[in-house]
Amino acid sequence: MKKSMSLVLVLALLLTAFSSVSVVGAQDTFVCPEGEADIVVAAGAVGVELELVQEQAARYMELCPNVTVTALETPDLATDRLGLYQQFWEAQSADVDLYQVDVIWAGIIAEHMVDMKEYLTQEQIDQYFPAMIAGQTIEDRLVAIPWFTDAAGLYYRTDLLEKYGLEVPTTWDELTAAAQTIQDGERAEGNTEFWGYVWQGNSYEGLTCDAHEWLVSETGETFISPDGVVNVNNPEFVAALERAAGWVGGISPDAVTTYGEEESRGVWQAGNAAFMRNWPYAYGLGNGEDSAIAGQFDYAPLPMGAVTAGACLGGWQLAVSQYSDNPDAAASVARFRTAPEEQKLRALSPQGANPTIPALYEDPDLEAANPLFARMGPILATAVARPSGVTAERYNDASTIFFSNVHSVLTGGTDAQTAVEDMELDLQDLLEELAVGV
Ligand code: GLC
User: Fold this and answer.
1) How many CA atoms lie within 13 A of 175 on its CB side?
2) What is the CA radius of gyration of the chain?
3) Which ligand 1 atom sits closest to the C-alpha of 204?
4) pLDDT bucket at 28, cuts 50 / 70 / 90
5) What local confidence, expressed as pLDDT, does residue 381 receive?
6) 3-state class of 141 per DSSP?
């Protein structure tokens, strides 16, 4: 009798433990939405992202055959993607149910998205990094669920550093010098297509990230402080912009001023660059079968400026449109795609997406599959957020002022001093408009 009692107790405990696991998102107990629904998810296609979304959709449909999930491919450049989304939102369109949204857009998307707190338990919300949840919480509404996080780093060719007897650069000046040495050497050996350093110089959000890194590393501050002080008109940033303009046509191709992430990765993965600034997704892909440099590169923190190494903090979330005809089904797809099991699968894929759930970083499978995870901790912990909190729904306008002025310096249209004065004035005007609620 006693024995069976204790067995019951053990079973009961096990069941409690099991059910608490299931509450936090185990897909085997996933509850499908009721009724039939067609859900369109707006998806990125950087790297193998689109294929992964399609695979996720297939897994979801196997679990919930009453829902059809279709991926809509959207532009690679974050700024172009936002432009497309805004057309849907302005029209209050039901054509897209679930959006893949950038970490900096919380203030922009808030009025168009449902509150995910209606669909997630507190226990489920507590699984995610609290800072990410806080970043996506606008006026107490959770406007998006964190899907993966990003922090940029410096990719370098291990074989070429060895060939030229160079160390991994830790400052921008060391990077410039090492890139020049390797470029000169490789060209002298006949590779006329070879470049020292590739990065993102097109006029879009990616350039905001790159230039934000130059600024933060030299001054320790972002272009607008959390309390609304503009920090661009200073000699350190002018010098950093001049240095970057000097890279164009020097250690970087002229065309770098048209490059997004994928263009830089194209040059890099073909074996035609010594260094690349990019996000973690390029790690697994660079080691893929179609890569000329598999096994010949590594990833380090970005170079230091006078103050710090300020990697840009990126990342993407999933948000359910208020204009969807089936918000319950869309939220169910969002929950499925952001749950631990699916985040783990994406982390193990060649895209190597960094989970937004701290517990997954302790998963031995992840470290075994991708050595980057073990090294991402400090890079992520010190990554610097763009000023999207203080600019809220006007973030994209602020970023556009920033990147278009930087771009004009890179392409020789404006000198660096004039550019920082212009951006300072325009950013201050924007902040004034925000303060009076325009
Ligand atoms: C990456 C980042 C995102 C950033 C974008 C810029 O996708 O995750 O936050 O805005 O790059 O190109």
Assistant:
1) 27
2) 23
3) 12
4) low
5) 85
6) strand
